[in-house]
Specification:
311 residues; mainly alpha; Serine Threonine Protein Phosphatase 5, Tetratricopeptide repeat; 2 domains; two-stranded antiparallel ribbon; 14 helices; 3% strand
Amino acid sequence: MALRSSLLIGATFCANCAFAQRLPPPGPLSQTMKAPHQTEPAPNASPVRTASPTRTSAGQSQGVLIDMSSNLGRGVLAEMTEDYKDAIKLLTLAIKEEQAEVIKLGLAHRFRGLAYKHLGRREEALNDFLEVIRIQPQLDLGYYDAGVIYNLTGRHQAAVAAMTRAIDLRHDDRGLARRRSERGNAYFHLGQFKRAESDFVVALRLDPREPDVLNNVAWFRATCPDAAFRNGREAVELAARACALDRWKDADEIDTLAAAYAESGNFAEAERYQQKALSLLSADEALRPKFQARLEQFRAKQPVRQQIGES
């Protein structure tokens, strides 16, 4: 009998952020692998302007064995290794093939949604994440993924509802930091600063080394329109930690650090880091006009203030 590679994935569709680094390509020998118990998907690179296994009644986790030579297995692997266009093609085929397998169907929709999100096709991503919710309404991860898209597209009230559901469905603290941080983002954009601050404080306590959380809280402390919630010194500290953790490769985080220095009154450093952030963007990057406009603000010695309702 022919041997084939296989992958055991937690029924909540595992997180690809940590696992992608450790997944070897399919080989000629039989390989059964269990995905780490992570809860978050790949980091959403945008700041405020922008998986754990399922439990049985006995508290045991469930998993699903994926044949890595199948369209589903190849599609998951393609998404994990950032071949997003191929992932979409393969997972679209998998969705047609796995209609009778609820967990595999949800897995295909979730990873295709992540691929769409990375390509900037946010409405298509949202449709997949909503399908995950329809298929497994007691699964927290579908609500989290949908909430991220709602925040990215300026639908902040919907983001609050989705993230609140994602928080309520968790049975432990894993993944709660990002969920509270994303809900804080939504409250921030709705002008509910006290609620935003409450979520951000909890998120930092839960995971003080998560770059997305650090970045989001730093942006809030640097740019909140209400001076009572701003703290330039804290913003610089948090943003610098986020940049260091991501090895100074994330333009959004460096942009946040620039805004933090501006709030602290150090416009020379703000200008320097804003130029660094711009240097990481491609010529046609959608964020470039915003980043360039902020550079001009810093040259004019003006700090950034988040406009409520804007992403």
